[in-house]
Amino acid sequence: MEVMRGLGRALGGAVLFAMPLFLTMEVWRIGLHVERWRLALLLAATVLLVLGLVRELGGASDESGWRSDLADTGIALLMAAVAAAAVLTVLGRMDWLEDWRGATSILAIETLPAAAGASYARSQLGQDSAAATQSGYGHELFLMVAGAAVFAANVAPTEEIVLLAAAATPWHLLATVLLSLVLMHGFVYGAGFKGEEESRGFLRSFATFTVAGYVLAFAVAAFLLWILGRFDGTGLGMVLAESVVLALPASVGAAAARLIL
């Protein structure tokens, strides 16, 4: 019974974290023409991210070790795939009989936030939720990467990122970077949320967490845009502009992850 409850939590977490991406029509188009090697790289990154979450937050069982961690990772990925396939098949966006290659491509893109949500829900939302097994600066940086990946993955495929980047002036982009930093620091230091770093001074907290977190969020944003082919045929200016625009939600996700996770 507890196993079924854990699977149910994982399925619910996958739907909760990835529902916006399930209903994003750009994913349905991008999944049909993105190169297979890019999708394979995205899946590899997803597996590493979920494995890291299991290691950092603790698995769903009391057992420890790589075998248990790999099992928890596999279950999170499986439930993420089931959630995405179920929602998109019911909505008529996947036709496994006529175009199974396109369906699997779409599924690969949908998996990242869904698997992160499944891992979190299964390990942290049960009655006997496992406590985080890691702590320290590296732990918090990883959580910021995970939060940035989940938030950015839900909007990275959308056309709005490209349109906003194309219309933005250098002053708009600078203002976006500053807004991202202000929001990140406000989440953790100035807003009084649980988890804020009260023992650190403003400048130290800003340098070690806010700036470092923004750099990580920017890198995650750029990686996702490159994987989805958004940089193909564009110049360096457009690459930077798109990354700055996507880094805004990514940075919010990075800051929120330190509080939520």
Topology pattern, helix = H, strand = E: HHHHHHHHHH
What share of residues is helical?
Answer: over 70%
Major sheet: size, sense and barrel closure?
A: none
Radius of gyration: 18 Å
Weakly predicted, low-confidence segments: 192-197
What is the number of beta strands? 0
What is the number of independent domains?
2
Distance between the termini: 26 Å
Q: Beta-strand percentage? A: under 5%
Structural class: mainly alpha
Helix count equals: 10
Coarse morphology: globular
Query: What is the averaged pLDDT score?
Result: 84
Task: Explain the layout of strands and helices.
Elements: H1 2-22, H2 25-30, H3 36-57, H4 66-90, H5 100-124, H6 137-153, H7 159-167, H8 170-190, H9 202-227, H10 236-260
Keywords:
261 residues; mainly alpha; 2 domains; 10 helices; globular
How would you characterize the overall build of this protein?
The chain has 261 residues and is an all-alpha fold. It has two domains: 2-134, no CATH class; 152-260, no CATH class. Helices cover 75% and strands 0% of the residues. It has ten helices and no strands. The chain has helices at 2-22, 25-30, 36-57, 66-90, 100-124, 137-153, 159-167, 170-190, 202-227, 236-260. Helix 3 (36-57) runs parallel beside helix 5, helix 6 crosses helix 9 and helix 7 packs across helix 10 (236-260). The chain starts with a helix and ends with a helix. The model is unreliable at 192-197 (pLDDT under 50).
